[in-house]
Known about the structure:
203 residues; mainly alpha; Protein Binding, DinI Protein, Chain A; 6 helices; rod-shaped
Amino acid sequence: MRSFVNAAxxxxxVTILAAGSAAAQGxxxxxxxxxxxxxxAAPGRAEAxxxxxxxxxxxxxxxxxxxxxxxTLIASYTKSExxxxxxxxxxxxxxxxxxxxxxxxxxxxxxxQAQQRxxxxxxxxxxxxxxxxEQVRAxxxxxxxxxxGNQSGVVVAADSSLDIxxxxxxRLKAAGGTASKPAPxxxxxxxxxxxxxxxxxxx
Length: 203
């Protein structure tokens, strides 16, 4: 899973509005922000990251527990395989295959749950940031507000006097916290069990 900051930057809807008559008169007014700096300073971000980390630890714990259980089952089968009858061997192989399928399904479900949770926690922060950027843009009459913090390189070089990052941050802090809950950072749960594939049950 993307880190909190990377995921948040991707969610910044940088305001780009039609220039209208101002453009026709050659008076197009442009500004830019550094979204990374804004996100880092946003009220609620630290709490969101802490909650996300807590959630991710819970997801990883569940995945680890299931992986350990599956590995124990495989190890037990491997140890006793030579002493089992053909029918017992086929039954054990079927049990392991069913467990592997259950494990993979559960891991995928937890990954989706983690992504949804991250989105829920990030959304109120990003809505507040975008709202403040739009307020500043409208009040100061900017036709365009670009993002110098975006990895896609929207702004390569610009006059620092056009940078309204500090103004947006100050407005954000004055507005106070965002919504109630905080958001995740760190990788998605990874499959940590199933180290040995068992051949299909003999027919």
